[in-house]
């Protein structure tokens, strides 16, 4: 036998040897017992070929690939979780990476739609937000309103005529000295704005009537009506002083008490001040160029806004509402005069939680050592930290102290805690909101102030929330089987409505939820509005997942950009039409990568994506599809500009697409064409995954759009791309550059 005849019978390589021919096989093949034939080795049989996830045997070799949500590392064996949260635009609000996937979460007051997007919940559409009278939706929240002459209850949902805690303004005169103090029993708010300015408010402003309310059809009377408040604003300037809220020295604290006892009461010690807002601001004033000393003077301005109430029961035959208003106005004005004097004499105090605070500090008094933090803060691990919710700043100890029983504090960095509506000292210490106040009525019960003793909701009414002052009627003459019903589902309706419907109490029928609303539960009397700017394709929707954004997505830049089907990555809506135009700068061409596209598998081609030179059907077409392709494809546009059109039918829906593009210098056209038309770019699953990898595509496009950025990636690319891919690119680039060597 010799290799010269029929290759010595060998399948592959043949060597002439002393003992006859010697056959050998290339890498990846094994010589069979007949010593002639070569058989492919299935590397995947042994230890999965060393692959982490999936091993695919190929002729003479094998290929590792990863499960969805993982990427192959450059050793082409191991898989690593893709951190989707590191991509741009993955989630609207909060993104949590999980092995092989990710999860989007929304901030409070927002709900998820289209898998990754967050839309504002319209709480007013959910049983009118539980509001007694009117409801105004706001981004991430909502607000209940009351009719003129009523105030919002502490539960922020009911309306009441009773007045919340007031601010008390007392002024005393001793000889020529005026002393004024503003005492805040509850609802005090402290907001430091900078080192030299802050705002303090006390009490509750009378709620203005808001627009776009959804008033209830129930007629509403308050227990007592409230006349419009009297508002006054005053501003004072003090020279050589700086805004600095600080607790008064201990010795002076006692003295203030004595002064209060002796002095004759000044006017307006009994003013019904419902709300006070005090703003203190410091600014430097230079005296022009001729100022001898360079140190400019500090000027401090205090602005006070008052809202005083008028008690209608004080109207008498001799003094009507108008006369009463004038009387309160006069009192307020004289109080403001006394205030001005006391502020100028530095005898104006604020009282919170039994502590007295001075509003400013004269510059002549050397500032004390600045070791202590400002009011509302304490030192922790060498840093100043605001007092947390459920605590307040104690002026004497300069520490944050938990709110005592019977009080609560929702905000951080405050100087006192708010009183529970009942004012009795029960409940936990350190309560962070009003629900910490003990004795609230449970759901299904009510009382005038929302606290015990409570009555169960009478038959024909229900109350799903605790601490309420009333129960909602079932309406339409419907009753409930027992007292203390918790929801509309307890009302004896004539028919039981399924999800996607609501019960209309006027006609006693189930009505389909209108377009743009949905209802996931049985036996409800309302439909929920879709979040944000989304709507549904049809009426009778049963889930928020049927709410879709109809806006065509994308960002069209001169160098890079992307187009996106509406509501992506959620299913796109029915009956939409989108048009995008890509107009690159002069001497630039367009490269497009379609990582994957999901359109319904229909024969009729109901949903179509087309890319042409312009809107004319006869113009040069670059790409057209009405099918799903999970394999990526890259191509250059056949025209300099691109008109892209996406149209959906009224029945279909699918996930759609997100398609990035880049414009590149036409000098590179030959190179780019050469790369995207090479079958090896798509031959292996790993190369396909590169075209789906958002980070790699971003890096590629960056280099194509701005070649000088190549050097940003030269060090990194070793970790970014598989060797086989680099080999393919290197051969293309070197053959393209060879003429210039």
TrEMBL record:
GO terms for molecular function: calcium ion binding. Disulfide bonds join 85-95. Pfam families: CUB, EGF_CA, Ephrin_rec_like, FXa_inhibition. Keywords: Calcium, Disulfide bond, EGF-like domain, Glycoprotein, Repeat, Secreted, Signal. InterPro entries: CUB_dom, EGF, EGF-like_Ca-bd_dom, EGF-type_Asp/Asn_hydroxyl_site, EGF_Ca-bd_CS, Growth_fac_rcpt_cys_sf, NOTCH1_EGF-like, SCUB_EGF-like_domain. GO terms for biological process: signal transduction. SMART domains: CUB (SM00042), EGF (SM00181), EGF_CA (SM00179), Ephrin_rec_like (SM01411). GO terms for cellular component: cell surface; extracellular space. Residues 40-80, 81-119 form the EGF-like domain. Signal peptide: none annotated. It is found in: Secreted. Residues 552-664 form the CUB domain. It comes from the Eukaryota. This is SCUB3 protein.
């Amino acid at each position: 036998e010799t290799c010269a005849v029929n290759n010595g019978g060998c399948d592959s390589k043949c060597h002439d040897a002393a003992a006859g021919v010697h056959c050998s096989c290339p890498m990846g093949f094994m010589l069979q017992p007949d010593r002639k034939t070569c058989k492919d080795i299935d590397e995947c049989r042994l230890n999965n070929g060393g692959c982490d996830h999936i091993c695919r045997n190929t002729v003479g070799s094998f290929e590792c690939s990863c499960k969805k949500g993982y990427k192959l590392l450059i050793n082409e064996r191991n898989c690593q979780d893709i951190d989707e949260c590191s991509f741009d635009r993955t989630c609207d609000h909060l993104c949590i990476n999980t092995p092989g996937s990710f999860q989007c979460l929304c901030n409070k007051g927002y709900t998820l739609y289209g898998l990754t997007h967050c839309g504002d919940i319209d709480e007013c559409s959910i049983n009118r937000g539980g509001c007694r009278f009117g409801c105004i939706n706001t981004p991430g929240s909502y607000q209940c309103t009351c009719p003129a002459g009523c105030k919002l209850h502490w539960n922020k949902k009911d309306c009441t005529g009773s007045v919340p805690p007031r601010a008390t303004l007392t002024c005393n005169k001793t000889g020529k000295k005026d002393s004024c103090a503003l005492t805040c029993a509850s609802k005090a708010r402290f907001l430091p704005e900078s080192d030299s300015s802050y705002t303090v408010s006390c009490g509750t402003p009378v709620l203005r009537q808001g627009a776009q309310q959804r008033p209830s059809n129930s007629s509403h009377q308050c227990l007592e009506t409230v006349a419009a408040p009297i508002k006054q604003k005053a501003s004072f300037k003090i020279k050589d002083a700086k805004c600095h809220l600080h607790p008064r020295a201990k010795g002076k604290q006692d003295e203030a008490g004595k002064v209060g006892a002796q002095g004759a009461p000044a006017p307006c010690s009994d003013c019904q001040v419902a709300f006070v807002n005090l703003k203190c601001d410091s600014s430097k004033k230079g005296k022009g160029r001729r100022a001898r000393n360079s140190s400019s003077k500090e000027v401090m301005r205090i602005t006070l806004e008052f809202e005083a109430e008028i008690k209608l029961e004080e109207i008498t035959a001799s003094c009507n509402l108008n006369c009463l208003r004038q009387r309160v106005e006069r009192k307020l004005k004289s109080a403001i005069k006394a205030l001005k004097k006391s502020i100028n004499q530095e005898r104006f105090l604020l009282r919170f939680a039994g502590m007295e605070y001075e509003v400013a500090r004269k510059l002549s008094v050397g500032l004390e050592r600045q070791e202590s933090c400002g009011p509302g803060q304490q030192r922790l691990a060498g840093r100043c930290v605001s007092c947390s919710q459920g605590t307040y700043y104690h002026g004497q100890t300069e520490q944050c102290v938990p709110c005592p029983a019977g009080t609560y504090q929702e905000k951080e960095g405050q100087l006192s805690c708010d009183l529970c509506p009942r004012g009795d000292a029960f409940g936990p210490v350190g309560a962070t909101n009003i629900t910490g106040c003990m004795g609230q009525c449970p759901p299904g019960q009510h009382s005038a102030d929302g606290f015990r003793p409570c009555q169960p909701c009478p038959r024909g009414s229900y109350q799903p929330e605790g601490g309420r002052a009333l129960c909602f009627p079932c309406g339409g003459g419907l009753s409930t089987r027992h007292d203390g019903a918790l929801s509309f589902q307890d009302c004896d309706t004539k028919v039981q409505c399924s999800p996607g419907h609501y019960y209309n109490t006027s006609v006693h029928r189930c009505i389909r939820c209108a377009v743009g609303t949905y209802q996931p539960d049985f036996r409800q009397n309302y439909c929920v509005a879709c979040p944000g700017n989304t709507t549904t394709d049809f009426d009778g929707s049963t889930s928020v997942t049927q709410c879709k954004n109809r806006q065509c997505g994308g960002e069209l830049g001169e160098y890079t950009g992307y187009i996106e089907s509406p509501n992506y990555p959620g299913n796109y809506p029915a009956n939409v039409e989108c048009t995008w135009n890509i107009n690159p700068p002069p001497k630039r061409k367009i490269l497009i990568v379609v990582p994957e596209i999901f359109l319904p598998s229909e024969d009729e081609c109901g949903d179509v994506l087309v890319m042409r030179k312009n809107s004319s059907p006869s113009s040069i077409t670059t790409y057209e599809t009405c099918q799903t392709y999970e394999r990526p494809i890259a191509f250059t546009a056949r025209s300099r500009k691109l008109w892209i059109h996406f149209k959906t039918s009224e029945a279909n829906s699918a996930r759609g697409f997100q398609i990035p593009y880049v414009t590149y210098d036409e000098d590179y056209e030959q190179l780019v064409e050469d790369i995207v038309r090479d079958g090896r770019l798509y031959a292996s699953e790993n190369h396909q995954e590169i075209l789906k990898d958002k980070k790699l595509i971003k890096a590629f496009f960056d280099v194509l759009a701005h070649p000088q950025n190549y050097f940003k990636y030269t060090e990194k690319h070793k970790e970014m791309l598989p060797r086989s891919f680099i080999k393919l690119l290197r051969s293309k680039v070197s053959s393209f550059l060879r003429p210039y060597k």
